[in-house]
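hi support,

uploading two proteins for the ticket. first:
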Amino acid sequence: MTRNLVYVSIIASAGALVYGLIVNDFISSAITVALLGVAWIVLFARGLYRFSGFAFAIFIIISLASLWADVSPTLALAGVIFSLLAWDLTRFLQRLRMTDSPQDARRMERAHFARLALVIGMSIFGYIAITRIHVTLTFGSAALLALLGIWGISALVYRLRSHE
């Protein structure tokens, strides 16, 4: 199941970016992104998992660059989320192959999918909140909120890692 989700995530990430680029008449860039997506799928299918980190970084850069090209922020966010999902599931698949018991593998998959759903859900909720709520802050209060956010995310990551 994890392997299939990696394929779906790569296709969805490349598809969101390609669609956004085609809508804004960046046809050559869209073809390049599509070819990168195909290359990621082929290398993953051949078992070259190390390419996932590189492909993830490239898709993040492409998503950021597409924002400058007036691609919809929603499509750029989808590209980021699905490429993050593909990268994470590739790493998880490597760890999953080290388990001997199919029951342990299923239990690990369920737990990992639940954590991924939480992180992706929080990301989407944060995006919706940021685009809908407008608050005027001073620099000091913005810095305090940034530090609080960094602390909260690091605490969440520490807690999730301690439960693995």
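and the second one:
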Amino acid sequence: MSYTNQQPKDFIKSLQIIHIALLAGVLIFGAYVAFNAKNTLFFSYEEDKPFLFLAIIIAFSGNLASKYLYSKLLKQVPDKADLNEKAIKYSTAHIFRMAMLEFPAFMCIFFAMQTNNSFYFVLVAILVLMMFAIFPTKSKFENDIPLTSNEKSILEKL
């Protein structure tokens, strides 16, 4: 089923499902690693300095890249585009934003798996909270994409 045949409410729901699935992937993998290493996990920010710095840099740069790429993709949305095209561009930008946050989270889980240091789960938790904060809603779509008054009235009816 293509986006062109969907209503805007369907697009928001499908984007929310994709968002939840991407978030669930991080949470399930993190829980799996934590469960398998529960007896050997320790918390330290003194050991594994190279991994710690690398994890922090990856998490920070992933956050910056997600914000930059998201805003850059949204600026490419033409004002005269129809609502379906705007919805497609918004969903593409949002999925790329999630990917830019998901990669650092997976890397931190991988570092925790390799070193048994649970400090990396702190970084994963921060990234997961960022992912929760950007959950796609109709109001966020209205605020992030320039809509005409006709398009806003279409969205209000949903």
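thanks. also noticed: The mean pLDDT is 85.
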